[in-house]
Amino acid sequence: MSRSDFPPSYDDSRLLSNPQPGGGYPASVPPYGFNAYAGQPPYPQPNDPYAGQPPYPQPNDPYRGQPAGYPPPNIPAIPIIPPGVGDNEGFTTTGGFDDISVRHTFIRKVYLILASQLIVTAAIVAIFTFVEPVGTFVRKNPAIYWVSYAVYFVTHIVLVCCQGPRRRFPWNLILLSIFTLALSFMTGNIASYYSTRAVFLALAITVLVSVAVTVFCFQTKVDFTKCSGFFCVLGIVVFVTGIITAIVLSFKYIPWLHMLYAAMGAIAFTLFLAYHTQLLIGNRKLSIGPEEYVFAALSLYVDIVQIFIFLLQIIGYAER
């Protein structure tokens, strides 16, 4: 059987349907079975200025014809998150911020807010202590205290449990201001039941304890943040014991029970102050993220005010 008995191939049929002048293969087409480009580099072009370059763009490869430093085309920018800055309800587990300047700015902001809160509280307590008509009025109208307690409780829950209002400016500062005024009013109301001497002694001891705990936490290698479970249990114990003590004392006043609870509360909130201070520092197992400055200031403020209230109860009882 000769080759003419088979149908023509694709290349032969093209030549038959569109014959080239001179017959046979055109001069530009290599003979059948011969690859003229075998062994040559892929896609070479005469006078190609990019010959030898990789065929695909590489990272940080500038546009051709553009100066170096331009981002590669069609590659979206990826934000760089510093290590240690995460978000798990405001807490990180990598030991704090690696950027020292960010950490120092965060600490300054927290202590500025805390100082403002304490100044407001001290002013209101001074009014309730030194202005006798004001102290008499609030003692005769306990409903005012419970209204302030309700405002304090609601704003405290919102700031602690709701991440959105706590981080959204200016609502976070508005809520923090309302919270500060409510707790300051409660503290002044409690201070109105004690003598001026007891208030000053409690204030002085609170300042000494707060400064000592802060300096200790900045210098010590002891990591209180490793015991977060213990502090959670301690907070529950203090809360439940406070409810039981309030119920018992409402029926019959037992001095030793009141003093026992006051001493336990002062010790517990001193430990809480150490724990929250180390969360603020940022170089321990757990730390507070830099966007949680409101939560950090609120935590330290509550600890210091509670220490003052419990010490005031102890000193006031000792004076009787």
TrEMBL record:
Residues 1-69 are annotated as: Disordered. One of its GO terms (cellular component) is endoplasmic reticulum. Keywords: Membrane, Transmembrane, Transmembrane helix. The chain crosses the membrane at residues 110-131, 143-161, 173-192, 198-218, 230-254, 260-281, 293-318. InterPro entries: Bax_inhibitor_1-related. It is a multi-pass membrane protein. It is found in: Membrane. GO terms for biological process: negative regulation of apoptotic signaling pathway. The keyword Transmembrane applies. Residues 41-60 have a biased composition (Pro residues). Belongs to the BI1 family. This is Protein lifeguard 3-like. It comes from Sinocyclocheilus anshuiensis.
